[in-house]
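Exercise 7b. Backbone tokens:
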């Protein structure tokens, strides 16, 4: 992420929809540049060929930008003190923080854990998308999980029954809002990366265990709604 043009990613996201093939493609699908990973992305194996430090920089920037956006928005628009979720951060495989009654984390996943009020992600999931799609993958996943944390803070009647699509919408609102606030900037290619990410993580991809994330078109549409209309359009 680096330079933003107004509605630039919205336009390209919509265009890119046609390029996504099925909801079950691995990250990058058939349209991606050749994979630089040494193992198939979905095996949960270690992805070696990633600049881990650069990736961690993006994770830190994504957390900071999304957190800062929601801090401002919550205090200014909701008139509430902002309590951020804890960032349990990166794990690998089953060694992530336990959530509720689950003793082990889910490999190759990213999660907002409501009982523990934290977000966490498998570094191998991040690395696979980072190498095969690009840095926008990191931003979207963190903004999406943060969206679930925001849902947990909303009055229940403001949380959509389509909670996953609403989280995508909140992710779009937060990333666009953070760009508007100068916290991040969008660079050419980000919008296509966002579309590829949403297509890759649509139903059947083991990003989460839930089956209601929606198909690629629904997810891209939800993200775009947040980009164009902001938080109000999502809730
Ligand atoms: Zn989700």
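Sequence design result:
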């Amino acid at each position: 992420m680096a330079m933003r043009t107004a509605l630039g990613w919205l336009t390209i996201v919509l265009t890119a929809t046609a390029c996504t093939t099925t909801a079950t493609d691995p990250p990058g699908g058939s349209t991606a540049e050749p994979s630089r990973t040494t193992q198939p992305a979905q095996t949960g194996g270690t992805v070696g060929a990633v600049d881990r430090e650069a990736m961690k920089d993006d994770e830190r920037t994504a957390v900071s930008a999304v957190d800062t956006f929601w801090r401002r928005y919550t205090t200014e628009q909701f008139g509430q003190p902002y309590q951020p979720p804890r960032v349990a951060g990166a794990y690998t495989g089953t060694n992530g923080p336990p959530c509720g009654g689950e003793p082990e984390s889910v490999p190759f996943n990213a999660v907002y854990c409501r009982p523990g009020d934290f977000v966490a992600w498998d570094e191998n999931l991040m690395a696979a998308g980072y190498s095969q799609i690009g840095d926008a993958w990191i931003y979207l996943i963190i903004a999406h999980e943060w969206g679930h944390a925001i849902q947990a803070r909303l009055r229940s009647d403001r949380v959509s029954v389509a909670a996953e699509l609403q989280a995508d919408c909140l992710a779009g609102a937060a990333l666009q809002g953070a760009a508007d606030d100068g916290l991040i900037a969008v660079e050419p290619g980000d919008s296509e990366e966002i579309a590829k990410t949403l297509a890759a993580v649509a139903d059947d991809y083991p990003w989460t265990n839930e089956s209601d994330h929606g198909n690629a078109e629904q997810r891209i549409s939800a993200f775009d709604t947040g980009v164009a209309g902001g938080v109000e359009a999502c809730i």
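Instructor comment: The first helix runs from residue 8 to 16. The pocket of zinc ion is lined by residues 144, 148, 164, 167, 208 (CB under 6 Å).
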